[in-house]
Amino acid sequence: MTVTDTDVPADTRPWLRTERRGRVLRLTAGGEWIVRYAARLDPQLHAYDLGDANEVEIDGRAITRLDSAGAWLLVRTKRAVEESGKTVRAFTLPDIYSTLIHTIDQEHTAPPVVIVPRHTFSALLERLGRSTVHVLKQGYGMLGYLGRVTVEWAEAIYSPRGNLRVPALIHQVEEIGINALPIVGLLAFLIGIVLAYQGADQLRRFGAEIFTINLLGVGVLRELGGLVTAIIIAGRSGSAFTAQIGTMKVNEEIDAMQTIGINTVDALVLPRILGLIIALPFLTIYADVMAMVGGAVMCYFDLGITFPVFMRQLHEAISMNTFLVGVIKAPVFALIIGLVGCYEGLQVERNADSVGRLTTRSVVEAIFLIIVLDAGFSILFSILKI
Question: What is the pLDDT of residue 364?
Answer without folding.
Answer: 93
